[in-house]
Amino acid sequence: MTDDFYEEIPVELHLGREASPGEINRVLRSLGFRLHYDVYALPRPGPGPHPNWQSENVVEVEMIRAGVEVDAQDPCDTIRMIYPLATIDSPLIDTFLKALHDVSEAFGCALRLDGSTVELDDVSNYLTDCVSQLLQKWGEEPGSKSLRAMIMENLRP
């Protein structure tokens, strides 16, 4: 990962087969994910509203088939779960880890981070290291308004 702000941390679940959109929908919806247009997401737990500079979702989901992103109504062979580390409070890492565990258990598949098969503890350690890097490099914690401002400033051409 070369993103200095750790805006998004993707973890892939390779299903080892094509799953139908109905199966994906049933599993993800049973775990609390919502479908909005063609994108599944896991909303933040608890009552809102949340600070408007923070992500509304703990997990964004992309569906992949044969290496190409597809819509939610298409079969897929890989589920990419994305954690918005920089723009959400760090205690929500545990919610992301639980979602990873639950989805990987439901489909009986392993987790992949940066192309390597990993255990849930490896993902947890990686996310903790990213939080440490943000604190050390920028002096900001995930979800802070100042960090969001720095990210927006760096996106400008």
Low-confidence stretches: none
Structural class of the helices, strands and pairings?
Answer: alpha+beta
What is the radius of gyration? 16 Å
Order of helices and strands: EHEEEEEHEEHH
CATH topology: Cell Division Protein Zipa, Chain: A
Q: Whole-Å distance between the termini?
A: 22 Å
Instruction: Give the second-level CATH assignment, the architecture.
Output: 2-Layer Sandwich
Overall 3D form: globular
Which CATH class is shown?
Alpha Beta
Q: Please tally the helical runs, counting DSSP H or I stretches of 4 or more residues.
A: 4
Q: Please give the largest β-sheet.
A: 8 strands, antiparallel
CATH superfamily: ZipA, C-terminal FtsZ-binding domain
Description:
The protein is an alpha+beta fold. It has one domain (about 10-155): 2-Layer Sandwich (Cell Division Protein Zipa, Chain: A), CATH 3.30.1400.10. It has 4 helices and 8 strands, in the order E-H-E-E-E-E-E-H-E-E-H-H. It has helices spanning about 20-30, 95-105, 120-140, 145-155, and strands spanning about 10-20, 35, 40-45, 55-65, 70, 75-85, 110-115, 115-120. Strands 1, 2, 3, 4, 5, 6, 7 and 8 form an 8-stranded antiparallel beta sheet that branches. Strand 4 (about 55-65) and strand 5 (about 70) form a beta hairpin. Helix 2 runs antiparallel to helix 3. The chain starts with 8 loop residues before the first strand and ends with a helix. About 30% of the residues are buried. The model has no long low-confidence stretch (mean pLDDT about 95).
